[in-house]
Each structure stands twice: as C-alpha cells, then as structure tokens.
C-alpha cells in the first residue's frame, strides 16, 4: 500500500476510501456492501435522475434487502452519491468500474462506457489509485484500460494499477452473493494491487483466487457461458424427452445426483435471459473469434436458448390452433423471480410473438410491470393476476415467482374462458392442476 494511502486510512482500522462508478444492479450492491463493511464509499452515476433519487434514499432497482443497507450506510455517512467522477476519484484509493457493458449490434460487448470512464479517471489522477474492473468485460480489456489511462493522464500522475475483480452476484440474491460468495477472483499485475484487494476483501470469509488480469476476465465469461451451456443442454434433453415420452424433471434429478454434474442450472424451460448470460455468451463468442477460435459450442447454446421461446408458442398453437384474437395471460415478465429486470427476458419475446400473431395479451408480474411497459407495446398490464386471466384462452407461466404458485387455481379456472396452462418453467403442480380440470402442458414432460 502506498504511503499516501496509509496516511489516508490512518485511524480507520485499515478500511478504504472507495469509489464505485455505475449505480446499476451491480454498482449499487457493491457500493452499499463495501460501505456496510465499514469502508467510505462514493457511488457515481452519469444518470442525473438516478443520482437525484438515490440522494433521497429512493432505490431505482428492486433488489431484496438493498434499501435497508443503503439507508443505514447513508445514515452512518459511509455512503454518498454523486454524478462527478473526478470528485469521487480524487477522494478515493480504490476505484471500481461497474458501468454497463451491453451488447452491440454485432454481438460484441459495447465498451464505450468503460473507455469513457477510464479517460475521466485518467484526468482526475492525483496520487496512487487502484482501478478495478467490476463490469464483465472481454479478455484484454484491462490492457486497454491501462493504455487509455496512460494516454490521457498527465506525465506526473502515472502511479496507478489496474486490476480485474469480476462480480458473480445474482440479481434477487445479490446481497448474500456479495457478502458470502463462493470465491473472490482477483486479477492483478502487481503485489501492491494484490495486497490492497486482499485487505479490502478480508472481512468476507471466502476463498480468494489470485490470477493475472486476462485470466480473471476469462473466468467471468467462462463461468457464465458454462452455466448457460448447462441450461441449453437440459433444454435440448427436454426436446428429446418430449418426443420419447420421458420426464425431463426426473432426468435432471437423475443426472444431477451425480456429484460431478450437480442439480443446479438443470431446469428445462423457456431458456435463460437477463442482462448477463445472453450478452456474455455472445461476447465470449465474439472475443474468441477475434483471437482466432470459433466457439461453435456456444453458438449452439445460443440457438437452443432462442428456439425454446418459439417452441412454447408452437406448443400453444398445437392446442389452440389459431392465436389471432385469443386472450392470453402471461404471468411473469422479469427474466427470473425476485427482480424487476426485464432485459432479454424470454417472456418479452414470447409476448411479442403472440402480439405479432394477433393475440390479446395481458401481463402480470409482482415487480417488473413498470420496466416491461417501457419495452412492450400493445400488451395490457395488470397488477392483479386474477384480472389478467379473466376470459383467457391460455395462461402462460413465464417467470417462477413464488406468488404465482400460491394463486387460487380453482378461482382461475372459473375466470378463464378455456382452462389451459402452458407452464414455461415446469413450476406449477402439474398433477394437481390436471386433477382440477386444467389442460396443462410443460416443457420436456
Ligand atoms: N446485473 C447482474 O446481475 C450482473 C452480475 C455480474 C456482473 N454484471 C456486470 O456488471 C456490469 C454492470 O451491470 P448492471 O446490471 O449493474 O448494469 P446497469 O445498466 O444496471 O448499470 C450500469 C450503470 O452505469 C451507469 N453509467 C453508464 N455509463 C456511465 C458513465 N460514463 N459514468 C458513470 N456511470 C455510467 C448507468 O447510468 C447505469 O446506472 C455489466 O458489465 C454486467 O455485465 C452484472
């Protein structure tokens, strides 16, 4: 640790001054949890509206447990918000970059926000800083960040390190995932950077894996791509089960009991979505190609995933024949339960296919209706799921919110025009629903 940094931390029991750039799903959790661990954190976002809300302790994203941690940290003066990167950088020892890295049209990661932030950091350097990539980025981005900072900083201020510290949290379980992770990956070039990050993470009792920066970057892309592969694998198996008259849920149980395989991420359904898996698989394919390797396995993972959405719609068509003018209720629009995130949600695609075919679609979701209404034109949004299912010819279960399992299906049967359930997540109790008189279809069973 630099002398200046030691001085700044004097009397703070070794805790740090941290700046987290990007107050999104990841940045807010990272900033508030580091503040909970007694660091002094400034969270920066270029979105003025967002920062204004945060300053009033209003949280722009739904994440269980997050508002209480933010409120407590703000009260203890350990967490503050600003739109000024330079102000935050000057006051910090460690700078986390947690801005978005969304997909470009060609599938590669759009790194313009990361580059933009790196330039601003460069112009604000005034003493040693550790600059850490938290955003998910393709391998060799760390090298580019370093080059960018060297290009834009003044001759006097070249005392910095770049590191990679990929984030593995899941939305909906983000706080626990951050505070109790399976592992912490630290990609560094210097002992100094390694020492600082190890010290920062000391209160979190988790195994720490230290690598070089390129390796850490690949660990993140490879982790998400592997989990996505597991999901597409079981979805492919589900298709075979449907043809053969087998039950994919039992197949998943049977293969999952093998400790080498594990049961998790083997739930057949309408596929993965969200802001990470689709984009990270795509970006990993993209960077591999750039480096000279065609990652055909991941191309297929992607194809299987997209085909699952159409597959559910074809199964509905098999039952209803014509979709035009049918009333269809879709329960769940977030890409998974316990989040309001609708980015790349399979439910959105399914709703759009149905709307294209002329269906009347009513959508219900416990948390994601407001975000969905920005993306979906032509659907009706109902807070109350019982209103969504009124006179419906089909109910699609698209997100496995526990609230939906607790619905009164006898009442739903009375409300629907034709009691037909297409369970895109194999989530509801099939046998019970069939006994209650529903026509029920799932995936792979
Ligand atoms: N969401 C997840 O579950 C998750 C999990 C692990 C890793 N990641 C990765 O973390 C990164 C952030 O993801 P997210 O879901 O939090 O994204 P997000 O879109 O929710 O948040 C990104 C934030 O960065 C801000 N921003 C953009 N450009 C900026 C700039 N120049 N200066 C300051 N702020 C700027 C945006 O206004 C936004 O608030 C991505 O690389 C993502 O792949 C996400």
Short description:
The protein is of the alpha/beta class.
Write the topology of this structure.
Blueprint: H1 3-9, E1 17-21, H2 25-36, E2 40-44, H3 48-55, H4 66-75, E3 79-82, H5 85-90, E4 94-97, H6 112-124, E5 129-133, H7 141-152, E6 160-164, H8 174-179, E7 184-187, H9 191-201, E8 208-211, H10 213-244, H11 248-256, H12 277-290, H13 296-320, E9 327-331, H14 346-356, E10 360-364, H15 369-375, E11 380-381, H16 385-388, E12 394-397, H17 402-405, H18 409-415, E13 420-423, H19 430-435, E14 439-441
Parallel strand pairs: 1-2, 1-4, 2-3, 4-5, 5-6, 7-8, 9-10, 9-12, 10-11, 12-13, 13-14
**Unreliably modeled segments:** 1-12
CATH architectural type of one domain: 3-Layer(aba) Sandwich
As a percent range, the share of helical residues equals: 40-55%
Derived structural class: alpha/beta
Quote the average pLDDT. Answer: 95
N-to-C span: 58 Å
Q: Which topology of one domain does CATH recognise? A: Rossmann fold
With helices defined by DSSP (H or I, 4 residues minimum), what is the helix count?
19
Sheet with the most strands, sense and barrel status: 6 strands, parallel
Can you list the strand order of the major beta sheet?
A: 3-2-1-4-5-6
Ligand identities: nicotinamide-adenine-dinucleotide
CATH class of one domain: Alpha Beta
Number of E-state strands: 14
What's the alpha carbon Rg, rounded to whole Å?
A: 24 Å
Spatial shape: globular
Strand content: 5-15%
Say which CATH homologous superfamily of one domain is assigned.
NAD(P)-binding Rossmann-like Domain
């Amino acid at each position: 640790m630099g002398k200046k940094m030691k001085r700044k931390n004097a009397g703070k029991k070794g805790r740090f001054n941290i700046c987290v750039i990007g107050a999104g799903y990841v940045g807010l959790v990272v900033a508030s949890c580091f503040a909970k661990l007694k660091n002094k954190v400034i969270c920066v976002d270029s979105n003025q509206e967002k920062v204004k809300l945060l300053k009033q302790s209003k949280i722009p994203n739904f994440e269980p447990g997050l508002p209480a941690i933010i409120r407590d940290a703000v009260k203890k003066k350990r967490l503050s918000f600003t739109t000024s990167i330079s102000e935050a950088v000057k006051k910090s020892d460690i700078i986390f970059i947690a801005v978005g890295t969304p997909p470009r049209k060609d599938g590669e990661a759009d790194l313009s926000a990361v580059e933009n932030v790196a330039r601003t950091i460069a112009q604000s350097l005034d003493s040693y800083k550790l600059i850490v990539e938290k955003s998910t980025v393709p391998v060799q981005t760390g090298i580019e960040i370093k080059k960018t900072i060297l290009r834009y900083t003044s001759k006097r201020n070249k005392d910095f390190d770049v590191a990679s510290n990929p984030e593995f949290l899941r939305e909906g379980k983000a706080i626990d995932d951050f505070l109790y992770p399976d592992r912490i990956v630290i990609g560094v070039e210097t002992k100094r950077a390694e020492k600082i990050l190890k010290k920062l993470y000391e209160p979190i009792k988790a195994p720490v894996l230290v690598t070089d920066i390129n390796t850490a970057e690949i660990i993140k892309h490879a982790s998400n791509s592997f989990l996505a592969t597991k999901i597409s694998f079981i979805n492919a198996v589900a298709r075979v089960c449907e043809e053969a008259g087998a039950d994919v849920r039992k197949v998943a149980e049977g293969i999952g009991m093998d400790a080498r395989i594990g049961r998790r991420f083997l739930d057949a359904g309408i596929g993965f979505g969200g802001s990470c898996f689709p984009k990270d698989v795509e970006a990993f394919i993209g960077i591999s190609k750039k480096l000279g390797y065609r990652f055909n396995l991941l191309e297929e993972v992607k194809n299987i995933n997209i085909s699952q959405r159409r597959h559910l719609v074809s199964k509905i068509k098999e039952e209803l024949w014509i979709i035009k003018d049918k009333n269809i209720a879709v329960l769940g629009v977030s890409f998974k339960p316990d989040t309001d995130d609708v980015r790349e949600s399979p439910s959105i695609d399914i709703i759009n296919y149905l709307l294209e075919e002329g269906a009347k679609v009513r959508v219900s979701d416990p948390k994601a209706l407001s975000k969905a209404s920005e993306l979906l034109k032509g659907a009706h949004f109902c807070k109350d799921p019982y209103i969504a299912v009124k006179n419906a010819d089909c109910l699609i279960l698209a997100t496995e919110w526990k609230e939906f399992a607790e619905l009164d299906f006898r009442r739903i049967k009375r409300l629907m025009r034709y009691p037909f359930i297409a369970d895109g997540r194999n989530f509801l109790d099939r046998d019970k629903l069939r006994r209650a008189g529903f026509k029920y279809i799932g995936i792979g069973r």
